[in-house]
Amino acid sequence: MSKLSGLGGRLYRGDTSIDFIGMRRRWYAFSGILIIVSAIALSVQGLHLGIEFKGGSSYTVTKAGILVEDARAAVASTGIPGETIIQKIGTDKVRVQTGALSNAQSNQVQDALAAKFAISIEAIDTQIVGPSWGKEITQKALYGLFGFLIVVLLYLAMAFEPKMAIAAIIAVIHDVFITVGIYALVGFDVTPATVIGFLTILGYSLYDTVIVFDKVRENTRTVTSTSKMTYSQAANLAVNQTLVRSFNTSLIALLPVGSILFVGAGLLGAGTLKDLSLALFIGLATGTYSSIFIATPILARLREREPAMQALAKRVAARNAAPVVVGARSVGASSAPVPQGEKRGPRNQPKRNRRR
Predict the structure, then answer these.
(1) Is the pLDDT of residue 71 over 80?
(2) Three-state SS for 54?
(3) 307-343 in b/e burial notation, b at 16+ Cβ within 10 A?
(4) Mean per-residue pLDDT for 256-280?
(5) Confidence (pLDDT) at 5
(6) Running DSSP on this structure, what letter comes out for residue 122?
(7) Cα separation of 131 and 276, whole Å?
(8) Helix 231-259 with 307-321: angle, nearest 10 deg
(9) Confidence band of 199 (pLDDT split at 50, 70, 90)
(10) pTM of the entire structure?
């Protein structure tokens, strides 16, 4: 605890520093592994789209002591082809999802479920979504995503600088791709609530990135005139100064989302809460990670390629290598021995007053 006490102050002053920029290859490698796993999950399993996107029929039966096996047997007795997804929601609900069905086939499923569980047809919550409506919802979700990215890119380019906008958008794409890959790996259905969760994590990821970038801009405003540190060093200091704030903000945001995910979805079985909370939980974690380990190192790399920043790096290196004179002694100068054949100059010794 003694080492952790006052850590935020030491990080802010620069007394303690973590070299996030210098170790960027490690962060890139870790993100690369997550991206590869996500790509494999998407290519092998793909996303499990809900009926809102691909169209189909949904039947929700509510009865105490209901079993998934009974619902599966009831649907199988109708002989309807195609994949059928049957999930238990909570302790007294079962949801049956099928592909697109005709009116006659839908009536057969309702009759079979009503007969199996001894309930009326009116007690079954039935939702039928056509393929055309699902296609329209998918297009609107994509339009909203791309429109969001374009608006954010323009805003960041005007409020900060174009290279900060590029780094922020790369971090956002990184977050979305990994979140979608984990969704494919887990096998949860993608519903409109999931899309809302994706858009929410985009905003949160940018919020955290903007906080770090604002501090980077403050630290690098006069970096070329002072020549005390390079752009990467000033950016690394900004990350350390905002590290505790980013961690605390993310932790406070993850606690209620985690409670929704594990209590609301896990114990109570609320399907909509599960779709929304999982996207939020994964997105909040990856958004915090990307703003510190991805966005700022990419920004530093882009800026270090500029001629002005390269000249600054040379000046800083020369300044650090120059000897510092303290009194009559040169600190930082070479202490190599005098070559053979070369004589040192006379040394001035202090005079002593002797009594005669």
Answers:
(1) yes
(2) helix
(3) eebeebbeebeeeeeeeeeeeeeeeeeeeeeeeeeee
(4) 68
(5) 52
(6) G
(7) 23
(8) 110
(9) confident
(10) 0.71
187: left (phi over 0), alpha (psi -120 to 50) or beta: left
Query: CB-based burial of residue 116 (10 Å sphere; 0-12 exposed, 13-18 middle, 19+ buried)?
Result: middle
What sign does the dihedral 283-288-291-292 (CA atoms) show?
Answer: negative
Both tokens assigned to 45: 């399993």
Q: Residue 309 in contact with residue 231, Cβ under 8 Å?
A: yes
Checking DSSP bridges between strand 56-62 and strand 324-326, what pairing results, if any? unpaired
The CA–CA distances, whole Å, from 249 to 186, 245, 288 equal 27, 6, 9
> Distance (Å, rounded) from C-alpha 219 to C-alpha 240?
12
- Is beta strand 324-326 parallel, antiparallel or unpaired with respect to 329-331? antiparallel
Specify the length of the chain in residues: 356
Cα 28 to its chain centre, rounded Å, is: 13
Q: What is the mean pLDDT of the chain?
A: 78
For residues 66 and 123, give the distance between their C-alpha atoms in angstroms, rounded to a whole number: 14
Tokens of 316: 């800083």
What is the average per-residue pLDDT within 176-191? Answer: 82
Cβ contact 57:28 at 8 Å: no
pLDDT mean over 183-211: 79
Quote the tokens at residue 156.
């960041």
Amino acid at 320: N
The half-sphere exposure of 154 on its side-chain side, counting CA atoms within 13 A, is 5
> 254 by DSSP, 3-state: which?
helix
DSSP 263: I
pLDDT(347) > 60: no
pLDDT digits (tens, 9 = 90+) for 298-340: 999 999 998 988 888 888 888 877 664 444 444 444 444 444 4
